[in-house]
């Protein structure tokens, strides 16, 4: 285990997090375990052994350059949702021919960049198809495209992260498939090489991936019957992780791949787009307790981190486990763990049975690798925190903290 307790102290690999907290100048900060990232990636690699496939890490989950370079070195492809993610993938040295650009609102500029670099592009709508054609003409190069199908399978997740049901804003209207195919046939600068779907995020039942794969195979057959030579089936990302830590069953990459194994024919190459399941459990968000207070019948632990650095609990009312990194033996009470930001949406956890901490105690939010730093903001003029990485017994800073001076420079216009 990359994060484990010894004698009441939490360790990241071989380092005591309390020592790190005392050593680094900033608080709060993000702390990653390199070993956890590697083993998460390898879990996909071994699940896919013997299957022609691309593991496309979804950069939106966490775009730290050091982490991206590490995943690229392990053999990962990249899944992109913006021109800047494409530029970041280039900076990290990814092979962009093994990258996919997704999105329901890709701009012409982003599409031109994608075509220039040979990135596979998912067609999301009629206007998107038109823009991809325009981009291919402008660059004077064939664009490799996949059609994003809406399989209308309910991923049984929070509505904000559900994307593959009929009324979602993503993908084509399936009744229009024939229209899309006819358009593509008339355009020599488009090469239709596959189909794509992405059902949603935090999925905990592999049956859902299986149902979608069965449907997608039917689409592949229909499209092949129209004379297209499809190579790729892209089933998106979305595998959930163990946020709750209740011992509930959480499928692994091999459960996922095993569940679709018998419906995958040999003549398609599989693309998967995991984000959270590669990076989510590889980091903790490390805070200090500023103080403890009681209002009415509510008890609060106030920490220096907030919804500005980690917004998932506020935005999705989602659970991320919270613990102290050191022995704390005050009276156990039911606490809301909150930050200093001036609104009541600012909480990291609600109704948590925790011992009453002393001021300065180290408190962490688990599973902070995916969509945490990536969704942070400057709300209340909090500066984004630094990121550190542990590799065995080495601590490496992998992102600087933002500074107020840096922020003020944005106004020098
Ligand atoms: N592929 C596509 C097309 C996606 O839209 C996403 C995520 C992924 C792959 C990666 O999904 P993952 O394996 O990470 O679940 N901010 C939310 C999550 C939004 C996910 C959006 N799409 C959160 O904090 O839970």
Features:
single chain, 413 residues, alpha/beta, nine-stranded mixed sheet, eight-stranded parallel β-barrel, elongated, binds ligand LLP
Count, helices: 12
Structural class per helix/strand content? alpha/beta
Share of residues in helices: 25-40%
Radius of gyration: 23 Å
Bound compounds, each kind once, are:
ligand LLP
Report the principal-axis shape.
Answer: elongated
On the 0 to 100 scale, the average pLDDT is 97
Q: Unreliable stretches, pLDDT < 50, 5 or more residues?
A: none
Number of strands: 20
Q: What is the beta-strand fraction?
A: 25-35%
Distance between the termini: 49 Å
Main sheet properties: 9 strands, mixed
General description of the model:
It is a single chain. This protein has 413 residues and is α/β, with parallel strands linked by helices. The strands form 3 sheets. Strands 4, 13, 14, 15, 16, 17, 18, 19 and 20 form a 9-stranded mixed sheet that branches. An 8-stranded parallel barrel has the order 5-6-7-8-9-10-11-12, surrounded by 4 helices. A hairpin with an 8-residue loop joins strand 16 and strand 17. The structure holds ligand LLP. The site of ligand LLP has 20 residues, from helix 10.
SSE blueprint and pairings:
Layout: E1 3-6, E2 9-12, E3 15-16, H1 17-23, E4 29-33, H2 34-47, E5 53-58, H3 65-74, E6 77-80, H4 83-91, E7 99-101, H5 108-116, E8 120-123, H6 126-139, E9 143-148, H7 177-185, E10 190-196, H8 206-225, E11 232-234, H9 253-261, E12 269-272, H10 276-279, E13 283-295, E14 298-303, H11 312-316, E15 322-324, E16 332-338, E17 347-355, E18 362-365, E19 387-391, E20 394-399, H12 404-409
Parallel strand pairs: 4-19, 5-6, 5-12, 6-7, 7-8, 8-9, 9-10, 10-11, 11-12, 14-16
Antiparallel strand pairs: 1-2, 2-3, 4-13, 13-14, 13-18, 15-18, 16-17, 19-20
Helix pairs in contact: 2-3, 2-9, 5-6, 8-9
Bound molecules: ligand LLP.
């Amino acid at each position: 285990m990359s994060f484990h307790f010894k004698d009441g102290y939490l360790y990241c690999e071989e380092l005591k997090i309390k020592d790190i907290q005392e050593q680094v100048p900033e608080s709060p900060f993000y702390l990653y375990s390199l070993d956890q990232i590697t083993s998460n990636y390898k879990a996909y690699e071994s699940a896919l052994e013997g299957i022609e496939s691309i593991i496309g890490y979804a950069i939106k989950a966490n775009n730290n350059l050091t982490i991206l370079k590490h995943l690229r070195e392990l053999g990962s492809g990249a899944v992109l949702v913006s021109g800047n993610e494409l530029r970041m993938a280039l900076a990290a040295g990814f092979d962009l021919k093994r990258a996919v650009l997704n999105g329901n609102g890709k701009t012409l500029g982003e599409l031109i960049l994608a075509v220039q670099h040979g990135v596979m592009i998912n067609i999301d709508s009629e206007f998107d198809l038109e823009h991809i054609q325009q981009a291919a003409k402008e660059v004077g190069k064939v664009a490799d495209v996949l059609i994003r199908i809406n399989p209308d399978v309910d991923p049984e997740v929070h509505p904000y992260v559900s994307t593959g049901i009929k009324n979602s804003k993503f993908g084509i209207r399936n009744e229009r498939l024939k229209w899309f195919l006819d358009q593509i046939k008339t355009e020599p600068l488009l090469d239709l090489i596959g189909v794509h779907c992405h059902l949603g995020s935090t999925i905990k039942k592999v049956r859902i991936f299986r149902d979608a794969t069965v449907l997608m195979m039917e689409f592949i057959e229909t499209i092949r019957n129209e004379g297209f030579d499809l190579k790729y089936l892209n089933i998106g990302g979305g595998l959930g992780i163990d946020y709750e830590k209740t011992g509930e069953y959480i499928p692994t990459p091999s459960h996922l791949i095993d569940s679709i194994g018998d419906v995958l024919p040999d003549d398609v190459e599989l693309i998967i787009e995991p984000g959270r399941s590669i990076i989510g459990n590889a980091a903790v968000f490390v805070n200090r307790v500023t103080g403890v207070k009681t209002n009415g019948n509510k008890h609060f632990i106030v920490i220096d981190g907030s919804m500005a650095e980690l917004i998932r609990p506020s935005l999705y009312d989602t659970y991320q486990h919270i613990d102290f990194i050191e022995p704390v033996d005050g009276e156990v009470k039911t606490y809301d763990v909150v930050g200093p930001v001036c609104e009541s949406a600012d909480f990291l956890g609600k109704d948590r049975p925790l011992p009453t901490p002393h001021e300065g105690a180290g408190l962490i939010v688990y599973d902070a690798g995916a969509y945490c730093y990536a969704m942070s903001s400057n709300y209340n003029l909090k500066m984004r925190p630094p990121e550190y990485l542990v590799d065995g017994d080495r601590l490496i800073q992998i992102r600087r903290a933002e500074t107020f001076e840096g922020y003020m420079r944005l106004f020098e216009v």
